[in-house]
Amino acid sequence: xxxxxxxxxxxxxxxxxxxxxxxxxxxxxxxxxxxxxxxxxxxxxxxxxxxxxxxxxxxxxxxxxxxxxxxx
Length: 72
Known about the structure:
By secondary structure, the chain is an all-alpha fold.
């Protein structure tokens, strides 16, 4: 035997205020998580740029070394 509850049909001001507060809290949590994700993406971007710069410097150094060897 299934028992079904009937939904409330009236939304009081207090219930609407509670719902509004819960929605605001949910959005605040999501804003905080998106801020954390933004920080992580920024750190990852800086790491990739630094790695690319090191790779370019290594290629320039190895090319200069090989060019120096070829001249002698």
